[in-house]
């Protein structure tokens, strides 16, 4: 696929799946052997990424996203973003604070054919460790 097509998938991943919760992006965009690396935390698989997104949606409402940069070359796409929301629900072991959050980060995507095969996520903005316990 083209770099522009891959950039569209990367944009849809963040805007439609992470922020809006449209799971069809997951089903149509990720390779079955997906490796989703969250810096300093863990690596998720095709199946476990669903739980990660579900937990995020349960914990944070009023989500919005800004894509600051989006670059692509060959089978790689890089995306710099910020996501805002309110910590209004349980998020893993953390009870709601009802405080606003601003998460800024970078996501790197590697594609095989027309699907995402590997993702690396680097972010900051939480005041506490969000890794699963």
Can you walk me through this structure?
The protein is of the alpha+beta class and 133 residues long. Helix content is 26%, strand content 47%. It has one domain: Roll (Nuclear Transport Factor 2, Chain: A), CATH 3.10.450.50. The relative contact order is 0.22. The protein starts with a helix and ends in a 9-residue tail after the last strand. The protein has a six-stranded mixed beta sheet with strand order 2-1-6-5-4-3. The longest helix is centred in the N-terminal third of the chain and has 17 residues.
- Rounded average pLDDT: 88
Question: What CATH architecture label applies?
Answer: Roll
What separation lies between the terminal Cα atoms? 38 Å
Helix vs. strand class: alpha+beta
How do the strands line up in the largest sheet?
Answer: 2-1-6-5-4-3
Largest sheet: 6 strands, mixed
Give the beta-strand count: 6
How large a portion of the residues is in β-strands, by DSSP E?
over 45%
Number of domains: 1
List the helices and strands and how they pair.
Elements lengths: L2 H17 L4 H6 E9 L3 E4 L2 H12 E14 L2 E12 L12 E13 L2 E10 L9
Task: Please give a handful of descriptors for the protein shown.
alpha+beta, Nuclear Transport Factor 2, Chain: A, 133 residues, 3 helices, single chain, six-stranded mixed beta sheet
Quick structural summary:
With 133 residues, the chain is α+β, with helices and mostly antiparallel strands.
């Amino acid at each position: 696929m083209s770099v522009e097509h891959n950039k569209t998938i990367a944009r849809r991943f963040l805007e439609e799946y992470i922020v809006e919760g449209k799971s069809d992006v997951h089903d149509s965009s990720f390779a079955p052997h997906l490796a989703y690396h969250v810096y300093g935390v863990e690596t998720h698989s095709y199946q476990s990424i669903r739980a990660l997104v579900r937990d995020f949606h349960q914990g944070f409402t009023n989500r919005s996203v800004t894509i600051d940069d989006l670059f692509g070359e060959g089978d790689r796409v890089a995306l710099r973003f910020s996501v805002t929301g309110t910590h209004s629900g349980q998020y893993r072991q953390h009870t709601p604070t009802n405080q606003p959050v601003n998460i800024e980060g970078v996501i790197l995507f590697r594609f095989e054919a027309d699907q995402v095969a590997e993702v690396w996520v680097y972010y900051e903005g939480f005041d506490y460790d969000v890794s699963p316990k």
